[in-house]
Write a structure and sequence with these properties.
20% strand, globular, alpha+beta, binds zinc ion, two-stranded antiparallel ribbon, 3-stranded mixed sheet
Length: 124
């Protein structure tokens, strides 16, 4: 039981350290620094539970694939770097959601993805 909690804590910690959306590979890589035995099956199982509990939410990104981020975060948009394949959070929202849809339409939510090259990749 203690081992299970340690693995789960290592996954949570990965999100707190990185503070951005993470792919399975990144979660494994970061989590293994804390719990060496962490494997893909365990990570998948824990991610499913953390989503069910409302600690994480799933992002389906058209290029980066399936990623996870902390559910408590305020609404924000995401920037995908095509060079390092990472997702970055862009604080705030410049979209006027209600005015963007035609009259008579009811908007419930939106997602915005920006694509390009991040600052650290540009410098290389
Ligand atoms: Zn980059
Ligand atoms: Zn927005």
């Amino acid at each position: 039981m203690r081992r299970k909690t340690a693995q789960r804590d290592a996954i949570k910690e990965a999100f707190l350290i990185k503070n951005r959306p993470l792919s399975i590979e990144e979660i494994l890589e970061t989590g293994r620094k804390t719990v060496e035995s962490l494997n893909q099956t365990t990570v998948y199982r824990n991610l499913k539970l953390l989503v069910e509990e409302g600690w994480l939410r799933i992002i389906y990104h058209p290029e980066a694939g399936t990623l996870y981020e902390r559910a408590e975060k305020e609404h924000h948009h995401l920037f995908h770097c095509r060079s390092c394949d990472r997702l970055f959070e862009l604080p705030g929202c410049a979209l006027r959601e209600k005015e963007s849809a035609p009259p008579g339409f009811v908007t419930e939510r939106h997602e915005v993805f920006l694509f390009g090259v991040c600052s650290s990749c540009r410098q290389v």
